[in-house]
Design brief:
alpha/beta, Aspartate Aminotransferase, domain 1, Aspartate Aminotransferase, domain 2, four-stranded parallel beta sheet, 20 helices, 14% strand
């Protein structure tokens, strides 16, 4: 069981480590307001003895978010917004206020951008993929380092005869050769439909890719899809400065509650370019059975299939207000300090025989990276320790982390040195597999997975300190 903060403060080793930490990262002291937040809004973490290190997987909600949303539901009567009755109009007003607030939070002009409600970032990506007007000869360009839901768009471009091109990442720092990027951007088809997709922050390694690539690609004839799901929980995205064409977001990654709601923030002119492959309730202004015709609604409504998750949508505004109250810049600074300390500690771990105990993926410094730290552990003989064993031991101590490839196969292939022929050979055996673990198990010389810890709004020094002590206790020889 993990120790409480109260008991840790009586521990001399912890106090020495903390004093050294604030000496190395004096900016952390400026974020101490978040310790008050941890003690009030997130007190359940310490009461239940949890160490939460999976913020890239999902954020945590503050108690006041849930209370405010519950009060809203209990003190009003709200109906399906697809009507003009009083309860419907009350709900419509809250939905549209939330839509407007999303644009305000990201400093996006309502004249330039629209916000479409989706189930999550993956739903937003599917909207783009199924509606983007790919034709034979068009291009879909993306980095190796992308979430599965971004990769999945290739299935739509294949159907329409477009070409998919990948820009490799270089291990172990998981960076892109900008000369390779420039050569790839020159592939844009003149007067064609060219879509370039990359993450603002990698969900695999925490690498942050230059936002300057947006304008660079657009100048060369590309529409730009910026996956911001892992970036916006701890970083400011100002859409008055950076102007991607499509931005998918999952709100639970930002502030934990509600789940089941995301958004596609898109330039209005680019929404006009998309062609929906079907229509549904809520997306049309007119439809006929006998005439076999329909007319789609204008703007955002044309992309919101069926009845939106209307009772939960106001909780998004509550969450955004919460982020504004806490301060994303304050969160960013705390996360930077804690992640940097984690990297320092992990990369310095050695066995008694002097051999390094870890291999880090991503930059070995806090520059151009977020609060995600991904690595593998090795024993004193240099053999990789099974990441699933690490996860099992962490689970026993109520440490929540994540292992595997994190729905990012391109980064995994680069990080673990998996070649194309080896992967194709494994796919040839795919009918034998019962799970993704079976598939990874066919790579003989590697476990084909890693350990990922990530910090966020409610993280404190005690969390990362206890994690490092856990690694030292169980895996250093």
């Amino acid at each position: 069981m993990t120790a409480t903060l109260e008991s840790l403060t009586k521990d001399k080793a912890f106090n020495r480590a903390y004093q050294q930490f604030v000496a190395d990262y004096p900016e952390f002291v400026q974020t101490q307001r978040l310790d008050v937040l941890r003690a009030t809004e997130f007190s359940r973490l310490d009461q239940l003895h949890h160490i939460y290190l999976d913020y890239t997987g999902g954020g945590l909600y503050g108690e006041s978010q849930v209370r405010k949303h519950s009060e809203m539901l209990l003190n009003g009567v709200y109906g399906n917004p697809h009507s003009s009755n009083p309860t419907s109009q009350a709900m419509t007003e809250l939905v549209e206020k939330t839509r407007h607030h999303i644009l305000t939070y990201f400093n996006a002009s309502p004249e330039e951008y629209g916000a479409i409600f989706t189930q999550n970032a993956s739903g937003a990506l599917k909207l783009v993929g199924e509606s983007y007007p790919f034709q034979p000869g068009d291009q879909y360009l993306l980095t190796f380092d992308n979430h599965n839901s971004v990769l999945g768009i290739r299935e739509f471009d294949r159907t329409h005869g477009a070409t998919t091109t990948y820009i490799p990442v270089q291990a172990p720092e998981m960076t892109v050769d900008e000369n390779e990027l420039l050569r790839s951007l020159d592939l844009a088809r003149p007067d064609g439909n060219n879509l370039f997709a990359y993450p603002a922050q990698s969900n695999f390694s925490g690498v942050q890719y230059p936002l300057e690539w947006i304008a660079l690609a657009q100048e060369k004839g590309w529409d730009v899809l910026l996956d911001a799901a892992a970036f916006v929980p701890t970083n400011r995205l100002d859409l008055s400065i950076w102007k991607p064409d499509f931005v998918p977001i999952s709100f639970y990654k930002m502030f934990g509650y509600p789940t089941g709601i995301g958004a596609l923030i898109a330039k209005r002119e680019k929404l006009q370019k998309l062609h929906r492959p079907w229509f549904a309730g809520g997306t049309i202004v007119a439809v006929s059975v006998q005439a076999n015709q329909h007319r789609l609604a204008k703007g955002e409504e044309a992309f919101e299939d069926g009845t939106i998750n209307y009772l939960m949508i106001p909780a998004v505004k509550i969450g955004l207000d919460y982020m504004e109250h806490v301060g994303v810049d304050l969160i960013h600074e705390r996360v930077r300090c804690l992640a940097s300390w984690l990297i320092d500690q992990l990369t310095g771990l050695k066995h008694r025989n002097g051999k390094l105990a870890t291999k880090l993926y991503g930059p070995p410094s806090s520059g151009r990276r977020g609060g995600t730290v991904t690595f593998n552990l090795f024993n004193a003989n240099g053999q990789e320790i099974d990441y699933e064993l690490v996860e099992q031991e962490a689970n026993r101590r109520k440490i929540s982390l994540r292992t595997g490839c994190f729905c990012n196969p391109g980064s995994g292939e680069a990080a673990f040195g998996l070649g194309k022929d080896e992967i194709i050979s494994c796919f040839s055996r795919a009918p034998e597999f019962q799970s993704s673990s079976d598939f990874r198990g066919c790579f003989k010389d590697t476990h084909a997975g890693a350990i990922r810890v990530s910090v966020g709004m409610a993280s404190n020094f005690a969390d990362v300190y206890q994690f490092i002590e856990f690694v030292k206790e169980l895996f250093l020889e």
